[in-house]
Every structure is written in structure tokens, then in C-alpha cells.
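Hey, why these numbers?
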Amino acid sequence: MAGRCRVPARHCWSRSNCAMAPWRTRGHGPYGVVRGERDSWLLRSREAEDWVVEYAFTTEPQYPIDYTVHNHYTSTHPNSPFVSQIVALRKTDTSQYALRGRTLSIESPGSPLERCVVSDGWLGNVLRQIFGIELDPDELESLASAG
């Protein structure tokens, strides 16, 4: 997965790629897939005046071994942000919700960015109601004590 890199809206990899982009609009803004460099494809979304690359992929066949090392790293390595903090993201037609550590961010078009700190007492409700993640009491206690 490509990191979130900013690409000026006026920049495309080629004129034909800009013209062929099948843009769609959600409540959070326009998005679409365009060709990138070296036979890659980029899922981009519009944020203010920039296009943000959300994900990059190729059409080359992918095999389970291609994912094993990456999945192992992100789930076990001490430097992985997914090991040291809670990470959850959800996009709806009207908003984007992000939980990183105990900070909940809510972005909605036309509204200022909202941020709040989620306490132990609210962590289970936030995960369930916003992200659709159900945890049993032992899992929730373990997560709350770790993060």
C-alpha cells in the first residue's frame, strides 16, 4: 500500500490518464483510479486542492507468500504502528473516522476537523458504534491496558 502522498491536483501522470479517470463522488469528496508509474494503478481522493493517493496496486498476480512477510511485520514488529497503538479507520458517505491511539478524529466536508481523546470507559462504545468492532470484556480490557 502506498502511503498517503500529496499530489497537486494539476498533476497527472499523463493527459490520457486524467481524461480516462472514472471519477466518483462520495460525501467526503471525489475519488477515482488512474494509472501510475510502471504499470501501477492509484486510488486517489480529492482533499482541498490536492489529490491524495490512498492506495497503489498493479495487475501482476499476487500469491499468499507476497503478503506473508508484510502481514507478519505489521502485526508483530515493535516499530509497526499497528502493534504499539490502536488504529481504526472508517469512511462513510458523509464522514471519515480515524482512531489512532486514543485520539478520535472526525472529518466531514464543510465542517472543521473534530478531535477528542477516548477514555477507557468509552473505548468499547467507540469501537462498536463507529467502527463496527465488537470486543468481549477480556479483549477490551487487554486493549485498554496496552494503549
Observations:
- Residues 1-21 have pLDDT under 50 and may be disordered.
- The radius of gyration is 18 Å.
- The first strand starts at residue 5 and ends at 8.
